[in-house]
């Protein structure tokens, strides 16, 4: 790993783990994701004060983090692609594209990001969407290697649109492991992976990755359930989480961050993390 890549990785993985709070949902063009993100300056201030390891957003919101003068503020992870697979209704044409096709990571370099993140969609009967993602990653990987920028790949295995309404996570371990392996083969420095339906299978995802694995959160759930599941996934080798709606859509995001940070950096159990949240 190049020194410049390692230096940026160190900004994310303080003491070996990382909590990356995702607020990049505006690129999904899905109204339900915007609940809790209406006032982005206020959201960003709340999260900076909560002190996770990183905050994930797109170029258009990155100034809210990087204009702050604190030396110890969270690192920036920049979302550099966008697509339409997140909506409730299936589109006639499914697509995923880089936000800057000519210079895909120039905005991340400008904003001093610690990493960039790109999707790898696997949707039923959508081979062209998958091909677009592979092409996107290939172009981004080359730019990341040139400039020493860590690449986070987000492999997403989704159920058919008609199963639960909208494309939902398919927790099948075989599918997640296989797509994670592809992300590893394409040169990911970090992999943001869906949880397996049985958390005890998640070690297989970690083994396939060969790089740090952060668990993807998905939609908002009961918080105690989230914490217990997160602890089980950490026990299987995850290095942290990339959670969004399970943080910013809660009444007390700072307390949720404190609970998850204790789990990642102090080895707190699910029950201990729940107690920390309630004290917050």
Automatic annotation (TrEMBL):
TM helices/strands, residue ranges: none
EC number: 4.1.2.-
EC category: lyase
GO MF entry, a single one: fructose-bisphosphate aldolase activity
Keywords: Lyase
Gene3D superfamilies in the record: Aldolase class I
The keyword Lyase is assigned to this record: yes
PANTHER family assigned: 3-HYDROXY-5-PHOSPHONOOXYPENTANE-2,4-DIONE THIOLASE, FRUCTOSE-BISPHOSPHATE ALDOLASE CLASS 1
Official protein name in the record: Putative aldolase LsrF
Species this protein is from: Phaeobacter italicus
